[in-house]
């Protein structure tokens, strides 16, 4: 089934770039279900927490997303499980540690933000659109496989340039201006770089869609080396109140050589 778009309108404030809070956010990579041998009860707890954070984000800040609470709240549990089990997705969350003990997804520390790095994209699926979920573009290939080089589902060698896409980036309102957005972006870029190097790629490109009205997010992406490469008009998914007006979005990309 085709989902709604996963526009990445990461909410930040203009003070975030200069804010230096006493406690900096910790970035946690969530387990990949099936691969990481997460016990059954812990899997269910992780799915619950993941689903709750995402739905709260959609409900509290509907204008940030191309998708909607009305659409995703009606998804079956397997929808959420597949997102956590997808071998081409790295789900990252930001937490603000409440003590000296290292934070984990199982700790009581509240999640303050989330971002998903998808990829590498198959050659025929590199082109993404704001109206279309990038989750539908990732191939059936293990993102974190142990081999130094990867192959596509058809067994072809990986291209010299690998393409990734950032999806669903979000910072909860009470944590904005505390460095969560920057930390999540930094972790995403490092994940892509590490993965590209391990696969034997010579360079990687990361793409992200952002609404044209979201100047703060666009400034943040620009600071991480992203530039606008295209612009499009797209229809966001309907909310409980009905259809929403068309929006205009930029596709921003960053390309970096690793070899």
Automatic annotation (TrEMBL):
Keywords annotated in UniProt: Acyltransferase, Transferase
Keyword Transferase: yes
Transmembrane segment boundaries: none
Segments forming domain N-acetyltransferase: 53-257
Span of the signal peptide: none
Single GO MF annotation: acyltransferase activity, transferring groups other than amino-acyl groups
Domain of life of the native organism: Eukaryota
Annotated Pfam families: Acetyltransf_7 (PF13508)
Protein name: N-acetyltransferase domain-containing protein
Organism: Elsinoe batatas
